[in-house]
Known about the structure:
The chain has 316 residues and is α/β, with parallel strands linked by helices.
Amino acid sequence: xxxxxxxxxxxxxxxxxxxxxxxxxxxxxxxxxxxxxxxxxxxxxxxxxxxxxxxxxxxxxxxxxxxxxxxxxxxxxxxxxxxxxxxxxxxxxxxxxxxxxxxxxxxxxxxxxxxxxxxxxxxxxxxxxxxxxxxxxxxxxxxxxxxxxxxxxxxxxxxxxxxxxxxxxxxxxxxxxxxxxxxxxxxxxxxxxxxxxxxxxxxxxxxxxxxxxxxxxxxxxxxxxxxxxxxxxxxxxxxxxxxxxxxxxxxxxxxxxxxxxxxxxxxxxxxxxxxxxxxxxxxxxxxxxxxxxxxxxxxxxxxxxxxxxxxxxxxx
Length: 316
C-alpha cells in the first residue's frame, strides 16, 4: 500500500486545454477557477522535487507563458496559464536604476512595453507609467509587476523558477524571497556552478535550478557540495537520452527539459504528441513556450485525473 503525505497538489476545475488560436477568449475576468499547486513549507518543496517513479509530469511556463493578448512576465499571463493547467512559472528579474526588482527579460524596455531605454537606467516610477505589449506587439492594459508582487501572488497557486538577470545582485533577490515568505515555492535559476555555489551559500534552504547536461556536469555539480535535494536539473535545450535522465533520477533529482525553441517548433510541425515522448524518455518537467498545448498532450499520463482532484506526492 502506498503512503501519501506532505505535499498537497490541488487541481481545481481542470479544464480542457484549448488551442493557442482559440485560447484568446479565456480572459482573466476572475470567473475561471485556477489549477493550483500549494506547497506549505520547504520540506514539501524538497519532497516534491525528489524524483519517484510515480512522479507527475508537469509544464514550466517560459517567461510566464505568453499568448496573444497576454504578454510575457505579467501576473495576468501567469493566471491565464493556470486556468488551463497547473504549472511551474518561470519568470525573469531585472533591477531599475533605483534598485527596484521588476519582472523583465530584456535589458531594454522597447520590445515588451510602450517605453524606451534600459531597465537599469530608468526609475521604477517611469516603469510604473508603462504598459506591457504582447508577443505580437499589441499594447495591453497590463503593468510591469515587481518581483515582490509576483511572489505574493504566486503563494498557494504556482511554483516559481526565478531567472536573475546579470545586473541584479543575488543578495537582493534572496532578501525579497525571504521577506515575502516565498522560500517554499520560489526556486532560483543558476546557469553556472560558481553562481550556484554563491546562491547556495547565501540561501542554503532554497531550491536551485541548475544546468546539468552531461555526465561531466554531474561530476562538476557534485564537486560544489550542494546537496542533491536542493537541485532541479535543467538538462538544456536538446533532448537527453533515457540513460542520462535515469542517472539524475537515481540521484533523486527532477529533470527539466527546455523544449522552448526547436523542440516546441517540432511539436507544431509534427504534432503535440512529441511532448509525450519527451516525458517517456525521462523528462519530468517541460519548460515550454506552449504550456497549454504541452500540458494537454501529457495530461493522459497522469492517472485518475478528474475535474476536481487532489494529489499527494508519493513518499516511497
